[in-house]
Amino acid sequence: MKPKRKKKSPQKGRGSKLLLLLILIGIGLIAFFHQQIYQSIKPFFGRRSLFVERKDVLLYFSDREGEYLIGEKRAILKKNAIKEEAKETIIEIIKGPKGRLIPTLPPHTELLTLQMNDAGLATVNFSLALSRDHPGGSSAEMMTVYSIVNSLSLNFPQIKRVQILIDGKPIETIAGHISLRQPVTPKPDLIK
Predict the structure, then answer these.
(1) How confident is the model at residue 6, as a pLDDT?
(2) What whole-number distance in Å separates Cα of residue 145 and Cα of residue 143?
């Protein structure tokens, strides 16, 4: 007589197959969610690298009386070109002050272009909102012009003069009080 072979219990085979299936599903879910998490945080790290160098600049905004400019420290991204840092500076001026100072540029103003030449002239081209939305008045116009000029020339010694354009064209004035036919030099005596 032949010895009887023990039959495998159908439940033992099913249990190991089920366990294997659960492990594979778990691995798949981990891989899927890992990819989803990575994709959702990737833009954050792309924009906010931990190793980005910053540079402190002084932006000049109006005091409450509209008579003097007061510097407000702001950190901008340090770039390889002064022109790019100067653009960042103008964009920060457009954003306005973070403290109690008064904005010097209308909030809808856009920087269109900024060019520099070897002679120290920065040509800053703004959207029409700079003059169209300007509050007017000689003091407000003076604060606008010298906020731009002083912020650029005092943070970047390579910039000696600033020519302000609107929509790519030279302008006579922003609000009728200060001539902008010629490039403007800084006026540090307006700084308090």
Answers:
(1) 56
(2) 6
Dist CA 26 CA 34 (whole Å): 12
pLDDT, tens digit, 9 for 90 and up, residues 111-164: 999 999 999 999 999 999 999 999 999 999 999 999 999 999 999 999 999 999
Q: Are 164 and 171 a contacting pair, CB within 8 Å? A: yes
Tell whether 146 is covered by a domain: yes
Count of Cβ atoms closer than 10 Å to residue 59 Cβ: 25
Give residue 182's region: left, alpha or beta (phi > 0; psi -120 to 50).
beta
Is residue 177 one of the residues assigned to a domain?
A: yes
Domain that holds residue 61: 54-190
81 in any annotated domain: yes
Q: Which one-letter DSSP state was computed for residue 50?
A: T
R_g over Cα of the chain: 31
Q: Per the structure block, which two tokens stand in for 183?
A: 């490039």
DSSP code for 122: E
* Residue 144, burial from CB neighbour count under 10 angstroms (0-12, 13-18, 19+): buried
Over the range 28-41, which residues count as b (16 or more CB within 10 Å of their CB) and which as e?
A: eeeeeeeeeeeeee
> Is 11 domain-assigned?
no
Compute the distance between CA of residue 10 and CA of residue 145 in angstroms, rounded to an integer. Answer: 87
Number of domains in the chain: 1
Which pTM value belongs to this model? 0.73
Residues 39 and 33: their CA atoms lie apart, in Å, by: 10
